[in-house]
Amino acid sequence: MHDSTLPATEPTPGILQRPYLWVTVGTCALVFLAAFESLAVTTIMPLVSRELDGASLYALAFAGPLAAGVIGNVAAGNWSDRRGPTVPLYASVALFVVGLLIAGTAVSMPMLVVGRLVQGLGGGALTVALYVLVARIFPGALHPKIFAAFSAAWVIPSLVGPFAAGIVAQVFSWHWVFLGVVGLVIPALLMIAPVLKGMDRPGAAAPATPWAIGRLGWAALAAVAVLGLNLSAEVRIQGFPAATAVLAVAAVALALAAVRPLVPRGTLLAKRGLPSVILARGLASASFFGAEVYLPYLLIEQYGFSPTFAGLTLTGGALAWAAAAAVQGRLGDRLSHPGAVRTGAFMVLGAVILALATTALHWPAAVAIVGWIFAGGGMGLLYPRLSVMTLALSTKDNEGFNSSAMSISDSLGGALALATTGIVFTAFTTTAASFAGVFTFAALVGVAAAVVAPRVTSRAG
Q1: Closest alpha carbon to 388 in 34, 87, 55, 151
Q2: Which of 183, 218, 313, 430 has its CA 20 to 30 A from that of 19?
Q3: CA atoms of 290 and 442, how far apart (whole Å)
Q4: Which of 11-15, 214-218, 367-371 has the lowest mean pLDDT?
């Protein structure tokens, strides 16, 4: 039995003390694996794209997993609300491993994309299952610290992930960047297994929440729309230059229509409170990741960096993310939730603008690299606080739905941004203009995030 409540006369133990030690270690280990894979794949993808002749599917290799993750988000959220997070957690890890195996043995870009889709399905489900696990295990007072620990789990992979991925790809093969992670999954799962025993509702008990088949259908439709947006960039119809634009607009409209039943009412209209919390998460994700995946590409193509050293850009941002998350966790109530979200949104926006200026004005690469440290710091401030606010505004019956909505906003925001940047990147005739277009789009989304950030509370001011 897992009880997050403690007697009022006893001080609340820390996240690294009993009874929370193993669940902290286990969940952070799983976050660690996802972080390592994310950073490593971003570093090696230019090489993968070149070897497999897959430049046209470059953006899809990133957006595809995020789109598939939307389905995983909904399935795991619904499943967790019905029975608890245990079985969804095991299933998500299994899918994640299968995706790694497919990608790691890929001999063509389409096969690699398929592996990434399966990996994204498992990763999306894993995120929601972990958030529900946190809600069930940890008292509210520890939520800022455990979410700070999740961000801190990016420290080690940010230090060694991009650099190690570049070395492995250059000395051995990029295939091992995927396959090597598989061997780390089982130990991570074993660490978390003891705390999962007895957590789910007994099978004989009536489920608190019915299966939401309709929501799964909407999630699948949203994923298809995102994939369609990516594929629209590949449409080449002689004499019909507007075809790609028409298909892209239709795909975006379909994705937004499909996501409405998957998030709290008023999310797309930035209604104050939980809806804006969810929307801010998606916009920040879109701006940050829409720019981040093109930074190593920029450094390799325009500045002659090796893949190994281009990956160090991501290291700086990830370290700043973890450090800022740790700071906000220690500050607790001394830093208000809205204040952290506003500050973080403006830091991300400023960093994207610096990347744009570096590209457009041919500034030294160091400007964009240093700027990305501020982007990581901004995400480290706002991400944990948006997670805390989501759980604080949830009940046990809708923890899965709200955690799913937050993850969907995260994934869909990033996926739509990456799909759009893929279209923008291929729309220009010169590489320099392509990069400038990508960062311009990311900056516009960053402006939207900064506008929504003050609305995360129910009252103005």
Answers
A1: 151
A2: 183
A3: 6
A4: 11-15
Residue 300 backbone class (left: φ over 0; alpha: ψ -120 to 50; beta: rest):
alpha
Structurally, what CATH architecture does the domain formed by 266-460 represent? Answer: Up-down Bundle (1.20)
Report the alpha-carbon distance of residue 459 to residue 65 in Å, rounded.
Answer: 36
d(Cα 117, Cα 63) in Å, to the nearest integer?
9
| Angstrom distance (rounded) from CA 358 to CA 436 | 9
Sign of CA dihedral 301, 302, 305, 310: negative
What's the token pair of residue 197? 């025993």
Burial letters for 287-325: b for 16+ Cβ neighbours within 10 Å, e otherwise? bbbbbbbbbbbbbbbeeebebbbbbbbbbbbbbbbbbbb
Report how far residue 330's alpha carbon sits from residue 188's, in angstroms, rounded to the nearest whole number. Answer: 26
Torsion over CA: 170, 174, 178, 179 (sign): negative
Q: What is the dihedral of CA 335, 337, 342, 346, to 10 degrees?
A: 70
19 cis-preceded (ω within 30 degrees of 0): yes
Phi, psi dihedral angles at 78 (to 5 degrees): -65, -45
Looking at the chain, the whole-number percentage of residues with pLDDT higher than 70 is 89
- Say which DSSP state 268 is in: T
- Model confidence over 349-394: pLDDT tens digits? 999 999 999 999 999 999 999 999 999 999 999 998 999 999 888 8
DSSP 8-state code for residue 202: P
* Candidate from 73-87, 260-274, 377-391 with smallest mean pLDDT: 73-87
Q: Pull the structure tokens for residue 306.
A: 């090796």
What whole-number distance in Å separates Cα of residue 4 and Cα of residue 199?
Answer: 12
Q: pLDDT band for position 4 (50/70/90)?
A: very low
Class of domain 15-194: mainly alpha
pTM of this structure: 0.75
Q: What is the pLDDT of residues 280-304, one digit of tens each?
A: 999 999 999 899 989 988 998 899 8
Angle at which helices 295-303 and 21-51 cross, to 10°: 40
DSSP symbol at 333: G
**CA neighbor of 75 nearest in space, from 394, 406, 404:** 404
